[in-house]
Amino acid sequence: MGLFDSVIGSVLSEVQKTGGLASALGPLLANDGAQGGLDGLVAKFNQAGMGDLIASWIGKGQNLPVSADQLKQVLGEGTIADIAGKFGMTPAQAGGHMADMLPNIIDQLTPHGSAPQGGFGNAGELLGKLGSLAGLLQK
What we know:
By secondary structure, the chain is mainly alpha-helical. It has one domain: Arc Repressor Mutant, subunit A. The chain has helices spanning about 1-25, 25-30, 35-45, 50-60, 70-75, 75-85, 90-110, 125-135. α3 runs antiparallel to α4.
């Protein structure tokens, strides 16, 4: 029973971290965030030659995958390390989780296949949306 409890505890801890991590992505997407909102993030992906990735997440259709290394190239190692530090993860773990979640989050926030006029709003507005999405992403 001790081993089982340990495994369940580890899984629940990881789910809590990744759920919180979804909310931590708010500053990447919010208009008042350091990345300049969705438009800023699109520009960063375009500058890195990966505009097709983020365009697939916004548009209707299948989301192209992104790797942790690609996110590090787009966002910068410091951004991923900062987010990782907030959740007691290594940058590699945070980058991996972000690579898994970011395409789905952006896809869910752009259900009509285009970016909303004016972006996603400020961080406060976006955190509410991300909080409700976090539950869906954990399923």
